[in-house]
Amino acid sequence: SIYFEGTSFRYYEATMGDLRCYLLSKLLWDPYMSEEEYNALIDEFFMIMYGGGYKELHEYMDIMTEAANRAKPSHFLGNRESPVQTVLYAYIAQNFEHMLDLFERAEALTETQEQKDRLYIMKIGFWMQGLTAVHDTRYEWGNEQIREEYTAWCKELWTFLKESHVDLSCGDNIYVPEIFVPSEYPMEWYK
Predict the structure, then answer these.
(1) Which residues on adjacent β-strands are paired with residue 78?
(2) Strand, coil or helix: 187
């Protein structure tokens, strides 16, 4: 299913609002399209925007969709107050390594710097939720090497958010602390 709330067509948005706008415009012209046609449109969009790694990105989207589907249905009624509740984080944690691999493979298949930049924005959105999902296993309970890798990713995310204007659809409540604190997971920045 697809909804219109929060859609915009801005390359600096990490929420796939651009994909929703594209799909909604296509559905207006053909509301009875088959699931195969619908999925072909998703592939077409990802190929145009991100290059040859469109299949990897479609798989990533399917995993995130399943994480949302596994969340308690009542969470969607109040997600304006807490986007943390819109997905099942245990499912994201379970698939974290695979999703990282999907992004690496997709990046290797980009054809232009613009596609690479767009893909990085999408990865930032994944990191916000993904790094939150694996905080305990990577930071709290991980060995020194795993903790250092996790901390480096969080620091890169923190630095990027401090220096950019990326919309993570957290409303006005996203707050990136002035000082990076490794023990805080990214969704703790959401106040």
Answers:
(1) none
(2) helix
Beta carbons of 167 and 12 less than 8 angstroms apart: yes
Q: CA torsion angle for 43, 160, 153, 103 (degrees, to 10)? A: 10
- Would you say the C-alpha torsion 132, 161, 12, 153 has a positive or negative sign? negative
Contacts of 84 (CB under 8 A, 6+ apart): 132, 187, 190
Tens of pLDDT, residues 89-143 = 999 999 999 999 999 999 999 999 999 999 998 898 888 889 999 999 999 999 9
Report the alpha-carbon distance of residue 79 to residue 82 in Å, rounded: 5
Burial class (CB in 10 A: 0-12, 13-18, 19+), 170: middle
* Beta partners for residue 13, in sequence order: 167
Residue type, 101: D
**What gap in Å lies between CA 84 and CA 46, rounded to an integer?**
25
Q: What is the pLDDT of residue 174?
A: 60
Largest CA distance in the chain: 54
Q: Which of 11, 36, 40, 38 is closest to 27 using CA atoms? A: 38
How many residues can be counted in the chain? 191
Please give the full DSSP string across 105-130, using - where no structure is assigned.
Answer: HHHHT--SHHHHHHHHHHHHHHHHHH
